[in-house]
Design goal:
With 341 residues, the chain is α/β, with parallel strands linked by helices. The protein is 43% helix and 19% strand. A 6-stranded mixed β-sheet has the order 5-9-10-1-11-12, sandwiched between helices. Strands 2-3-4 form a 3-stranded antiparallel β-sheet. A 3-stranded antiparallel β-sheet has the order 6-7-8. The longest helix is centred in the middle third of the chain and has 37 residues. The radius of gyration is 21 Å and the shape is globular. The structure holds adenosine-5'-diphosphate (ADP) and magnesium ion (MG).
């Protein structure tokens, strides 16, 4: 929505406040787009570009103890253009490495209550940062899966078995890397969730095919179903994380506020683990963190956020003078204009 916007952020804590529809979420969207190359709201491109304009353009500069990075991204009718320190060929992963961003927004409960894709994407963000080889394997697997599905669509069923070989090697490697990262992540998420909620959470990785079979066996067993449905029904692209809270399914038996706290524990756990593996500080964006939370829960959440040590930009409808401990920057946004307070 902004015509133009410039923010000089505090290295630790920042609060953007303003009325409904003043542009708070749009400001966070702009910051996160620089590190992710996509909308955290999954908004279509035409909604991200300002009405009446063809493209948007974003610049950012990050500084840590070792170096500075200059990031740029533009998108719209001219297509996606990226730059990191003047180089245009690094791909989105170069921006994601220079500006790692995590977001907690009012839709965060979807990480618990939404489709498995939300949880795969979440886990993959961690594995991508922790295991440098992951992105390459993941891309190869995606290509192999696409090709296998194409064979199924074109009724090339005789070629399936020979195609399986490469597919299995990649699929098992994806699964191995995810599982090793998940083991570490699980500990961190459990700890934070018990600080946020009183009862225990159990968190399990489901690999995307039956636990007592290897992927080869499972592909063969699923072959007639795959042929019938013209797509591959087993493999790490069907993985999920099952979340149990207080001995029930967190998806079905838990209130929206509790789902939000569980999801926040997942996000903060991922921030903790990823930060141990990368030099660049993670930027944590909190869009209206008070939504769905009572005062006590919000306090607990903010305590855990502060414990992360990340740089934070939060939004709120009101200007609270005790939102963060110590010094922080406050910005007021009104009808698409941001002023530093
Ligand atoms: N592509 C766009 N171009 C211009 N204005 C937009 C666009 N998309 C949304 N808006 C406007 O931005 C405002 C919403 O901003 P948002 O950042 O969601 O506000 P807040 O988070 O402060 O409630 C709405 O008034 C909406 O009309
Ligand atoms: Mg908003």
């Amino acid at each position: 929505m902004f015509d133009s916007l410039e923010l000089q952020l505090h290295p630790k804590y920042n609060l953007i406040y303003g009325n409904n529809a003043s542009g708070k979420t749009s400001a966070l969207e702009a910051i996160s787009y620089l590190g992710r190359g996509r909308s955290f709201r999954d908004a279509p491109l035409k909604n991200i570009v300002r009405d009446g304009c063809d493209n948007f353009l974003l610049f950012g500069q990050t500084t840590n103890n070792i170096k500075q990075d200059k990031l740029g991204i533009s998108n719209g009718s001219d297509g996606l253009v990226l730059s990191l320190n003047g180089e245009h060929n690094g791909g989105l992963e170069s921006l994601a490495g220079a500006l790692p961003v995590q977001v907690i927004d009012p839709n965060i409960h979807n990480l618990v209550a939404g489709s498995p894709e939300n949880r795969r994407r979440y886990l993959d963000w961690v594995v991508f940062h922790v295991e440098p080889s992951y992105l390459k394997v993941w891309r190869k697997y995606k290509r192999s899966l696409k090709q296998r599905n194409l064979l199924l669509k074109n009724h090339n069923n005789k070629e399936l078995r020979s195609w399986n070989k490469g597919f299995i090697v990649l699929g098992e490697e994806i699964s191995r890397l995810r599982k090793s990262v998940f083991e570490v992540l699980e500990g961190s998420v459990s700890q934070i969730s018990s600080a946020l909620l009183n009862k225990g959470i159990s968190f399990q990785y489901e690999q995307g095919w039956p636990i007592n079979q290897d992927l080869e066996e499972s592909l063969i067993k699923s072959e007639s179903r795959d042929i019938h449905l013209k797509s591959t029904q087993v493999g790490p692209h069907r993985a999920d994380i099952s979340i149990t809270y207080d001995s029930g399914s967190a998806k079905k038996q838990v209130s929206r506020g509790q789902q939000k706290l569980l999801a926040c524990a997942m996000v903060l756990g991922s921030v903790e683990i990823v930060q141990e593996h990368i030099d660049n500080p993670i930027l944590l964006l909190l869009d209206d963190p008070s939504a769905e939370l009572d005062k006590n829960s919000l306090n607990k959440l903010m305590n855990e956020v502060v414990a992360m040590g990340s740089q934070v930009v939060a939004t709120s409808i009101e200007n609270h003078n005790d939102f963060f401990p110590g010094d922080y920057f406050v910005f007021h946004v009104e009808q698409g204009i941001i002023k530093s307070i």
